[in-house]
Amino acid sequence: MKHTLAALLLASVSATSAMAQSQGDITVGFGFGSVMPKSGNGTLAGGTADIGSNLRPTFTAEYFIRDNLGIELLAATPFKHDISIAGIGHAGVTKQLPPTLSLNYHFRTDSAFKPYIGAGVNYTTFFQEESPLGTLELDDSFGFSVQVGVDYELNEKAALRANLRWMDIDTEATLNGASIGTAEIDPYVVNFAYVVKF
Q1: 55-111 pLDDT, tens per residue?
Q2: Are 132 and 139 contacting, i.e. CB atoms less than 8 angstroms apart?
Q3: Count of domains forming the chain
Q4: pLDDT, tens digit, for every residue of 132-155?
Q5: Cα dihedral 20, 23, 24, 28 in deg (nearest 10)
Q6: Considering only CA atoms, which of 77, 80, 91, 79 is closest in space to residue 42?
Q7: Angle subtended at Cα 142 by Cα 137 and Cα 143, rounded to the nearest 5 degrees
């Protein structure tokens, strides 16, 4: 009986280990992400700014420096956001890219569901700003990022992923060379992806 219990325990541990991410593994993910700025994006030109959401394709690559511990890079095609200001209305549009580097911890489980958490740094660059009010410019931004997510394993090499990030994104805005305030974007980013392990 003792030998049977020991064998079952060993098999359980082995199965759990086989499903864990191992040092040296690489995963890549392809999906779609929605950048959803918080409501009330600071004061610009004396009015409350409102920055719209946008959905775009995303890409992630993660390298596991230890078992279950990976460094992940998030990239995407350019997001485009409408900008409106209370009392003015439509104030412009901008495109942005938010590459984000995170350190993620993937929890070991004995099921197909693999939750993880992560934290890192975000760099957001703004470009192609346009405004009916004049020349609009938005400064690039550095900030923290945190995330929670879960992978659902389809097999040993593929999974479906859902995750939620929060990014600290603030940008100084100028119009015709004069400062008009700070846009506090601070978005949530919802992402769904297909992930492959190499």
Answers
A1: 999 999 999 999 999 999 999 999 999 999 999 999 999 999 999 999 999 999 999
A2: no
A3: 1
A4: 999 999 999 999 999 999 999 999
A5: 40
A6: 91
A7: 125
Rounded to whole angstroms, the Cα distance separating 87 from 49 reads 10
Asked if residues 93 and 130 have their Cβ atoms less than 8 Å apart, the reply is yes
How many residues are recorded in the chain? Answer: 198
Query: What's the one-letter identity of residue 53?
Result: S
Consecutive H or E run containing 59:
strand 54-66
pLDDT category at 128 given cuts 50, 70, 90 is very high
* Domain residue limits at 90: 2-197
Range of lowest pLDDT (13-22, 113-122, 161-170)? 13-22
Residue 94 sits in a domain of what CATH number? Answer: 2.40.160.20
What angle (nearest 5°) sits at the alpha carbon of residue 26, between those of residues 21 and 57? 110
What is the helix (H) or strand (E) element at residue 151, kind and residue range? strand 141-155
Whole-number pLDDT of residue 22: 87
Mark 167-178 as b/e (b = at least 16 C-beta within 10 Å): bbbbbebbbeee
